[in-house]
Design goal:
Layout (H helix, E strand, L loop, with lengths): L11 H14 L12 H8 L3 H13 L3 E4 L3 E4 L1
Antiparallel strand pairs: 1-2
Helix pairs in contact: 1-3, 2-3
Length: about 80
């Protein structure tokens, strides 16, 4: 799903954000699809949940996803 390259000069949160955005553009993630929770994705990628939260917040600020309190984040 998401590939992280620790030798990449981009920060990890940026790599996560770019990977998710690429998945949305290519149709892997469709409008209305629910994204994994912050904790689930952090465990899957073995990174800090704050990093995932930062990626989700950036995607939400750019209009790619919408967060619904108590339900999760969804592709716009």
């Amino acid at each position: 799903m998401i590939h992280l390259d620790y030798r990449d000069s981009r920060p990890i949160y940026q790599q996560v954000k770019d990977n998710l955005r690429r998945m949305m553009v290519t149709g892997v993630l469709l409008p209305g699809d629910k994204l994994p929770s912050v904790r689930e994705l952090a465990m899957e990628l073995a990174i800090n949940p704050n990093t995932i939260q930062r990626s989700y917040r950036a995607l939400e600020d750019e209009g790619w996803i919408a967060s619904v309190a108590g339900k999760g984040s969804f592709v716009c």
